[in-house]
Amino acid sequence: MSDHSALLGPAAAELLRVATAVPSLDARTACAGYDVRGLLNHLLYWGPWLTAAGRREPYAASVAEEADAALVQDGWPTLLAKQTDELVAAFAPPEAWTGTVTLGSAELPAAVVGDMVLGEFVLHGWDLAWASGSTLSCSDAAAAAVLASATAMGVQARSMGVYGEVVQVPETASLLDRALGASGRDPSSDAVQR
After folding, report:
1. Which of 97, 133, 135, 161 shows its CA 20 to 30 Å from the CA of 127?
2. Could you give the C-alpha distances from 59 to 3, 12, 64, 108, in angstroms and in order?
């Protein structure tokens, strides 16, 4: 795993752009089991956990389970923007990508957690763009990093229900489409949406 800190800022900005453009919090997303409200709640719930890991600080959520949190209230765009800024800042220093960090009760390589943050921005950014029928702008470097991470962690992520089954995407497809397929998303969005 490498330091992908330079990729986080643009990916976070794109996530915020598509999140605030979604026309309805009740719209379906491409992320199984989540409407827009649920996916935003997911991002708002796990953001502080990931930030604390990057800062190597302890964190205890006020609500034990994501399903019990109701974080999408008035002002959620401001909260999401603040949280993504904090996440980017937490993983900006090179040392944030070295050694191990604690995420909840798990001890993980810091670079894996940093790549999880990038994956959250890119994959869930695509999910939210899909919800409004728009497209996600993603650099090839970010897509390649997400593809590598999704491939490396795929078996474990699928066993935990984080990813769906691999969607076969042609080798000639874009890096983003291949990353989406590796994470269980169908990049031919019309097959899922509408």
Report:
1. 97
2. 23, 22, 11, 15
Domain range list for the chain: 5-191
Per-residue pLDDT at 80:
97
CATH class of 5-191: mainly alpha
DSSP 28: B
C-beta of residue 114 within 8 angstroms of C-beta of residue 5 = yes
Q: How many Cα atoms sit within 13 Å of 147 on the Cβ side?
A: 18
pLDDT of residue 168: 92
Helix (H) and strand (E) counts in the chain: 6, 2
Q: Which one-letter amino acid corresponds to residue 18?
A: V
Tell me how far the alpha carbon of residue 154 is from its chain's centroid: 14
Answer whether 181's CB lies under 8 Å from 26's CB.
no
Residue 102 tokens read as: 């604690």
Amino acid at 159: S
